[in-house]
Amino acid sequence: MAGRPRITPGLRGGGVGGVAAHSSDTRATPKPAERPSRGLLSFGLHFLAGGVGGTVGAAVTCPLEVVKTRLQSSFHYQTYRNGVAVPPPVLTAFRQNPPRAAYDHMRHVVHILRDIRRSEGIRALWRGLGPTLIGVVPSRAIFFATYNQTKTVLTGWQSPPPTAAAEVDAAAAAAAAAEPYALTSPFVHIGAAGVAGVLTATSTNPVWLIKTRLQLQSSAPGAAASTPTVYANSWACLRTVLRDEGFRGLYRGLTASFLGIGENVIQFATYEYLKSRLRRHREHQQAQIDGKAGARRGVAAPPPPPSVARSQQLGDTVMTAGLSKLIAAGLTYPHEVLRTRLRQHPDASGHIKYRGVFQAAVLIYREEGLPGLYGGMAAHLMRVVPNAVILFLCYEGVVELYEAYAARCATKPSLDARR
């Protein structure tokens, strides 16, 4: 059907782990019934594609994750503010001079990266990568499976019963088929992302707590005062937490993680909107080209070369993935600081400074002011935006490889029959 983009089951939702990329030549895209992968995209494919994208993104951006985590922590609050030309707070600086603020904060992040490499070694930049990778694959799989299933259920609630559907005007049905995004309310994506976020945060919180504590400890000389507990590895950290804090200690910061579900909701809704707008823009452009070609030659214009269509598809994915993540992360950032503070290990005397979301927010504001709730924001944005882009591109690559393989398998029987 003309004007219908490629939409794979469970991928139309967008956001982290969801890609609904489509070619600029929407006419050349087969109908859903013709796509061999439409009914074959299973939980295994979601698991594999999300795991690959999450693994590559986490490995590439891990050094920035270490810097961000330390800047969010109270243990390192003074470490990177003494003897270093610290830029003004993010909000104040960007109101005054956005280009200068971006440059200053990027330079500050680079300075910290160099300082960690010089004082602790290059391996310190990838501290906590093990738990991160262990958490990425199941979290992506859980999120994708839950999001897709919830979206299917919620979309079914929106659909009219069969008797009513039969009475729908043919023109209206055709218009709805040509506009698949109109069939899915934004509330469906919001609800699906919310449910998936709750289940994902609850099931993977212990992994992220271990990752955070490994990244907060420092192996630099003289760092023992600010980071009193040194964990040899992930298992040692797990045993120490269970021994000293009990099973509940593994779920410290979970409430703050629930606050972060809003980030997923905003990201998914923004991604869906941007994808829809871009698709309509491409269709409008192609319609104009066809109209001009038809006026001159009486025939429709040929579709763009595959290389051009592929470049436009990659560009759309990069832009929508990066922009949606930038907006969502920027609007909801304070929950990241609260989550890190709640997950950091007790001090030398065993005292737990931050015990709840509200108590932590009030204490941070009293001791550090509003900038304390935005500590490490520059490093965070420098990490999550490219990480989201890498995730989307890898995810889409795995899906397309699977579709190509499924297409070859679907055509092989017919070729054998001809012989």
UniProtKB/TrEMBL annotation:
Solcar repeats mapped onto the chain: 41-153, 184-277, 316-401
UniProt key word DNA-binding: no
Keywords from the UniProt entry: Membrane, Mitochondrion, Mitochondrion inner membrane, Repeat, Transmembrane, Transmembrane helix, Transport
Where does the record place the region Disordered? 1-37, 284-311
Locations listed in the record? Mitochondrion inner membrane
The membrane-spanning stretches of this chain are none
* Superkingdom per UniProt: Eukaryota
Upper classification of the organism: Eukaryota, Fungi, Fungi incertae sedis, Chytridiomycota, Chytridiomycota incertae sedis
Q: Spell out the InterPro entries in the cross-references.
A: MCP_dom_sf, MCP_transmembrane, SLC25A33/36-like
Q: What is this protein called?
A: Mitochondrial carrier
Is the keyword Lyase in the record?
A: no
* Similarity annotation: Belongs to the mitochondrial carrier (TC 2.A.29) family.
Gene Ontology terms describing biological process: pyrimidine nucleotide import into mitochondrion
**Molecular function GO labels:** pyrimidine nucleotide transmembrane transporter activity
Give membrane topology per the record.
Multi-pass membrane protein
Q: Name one Pfam family in it.
A: Mito_carr
Please provide one cellular component term from the Gene Ontology annotations of this protein: mitochondrial inner membrane
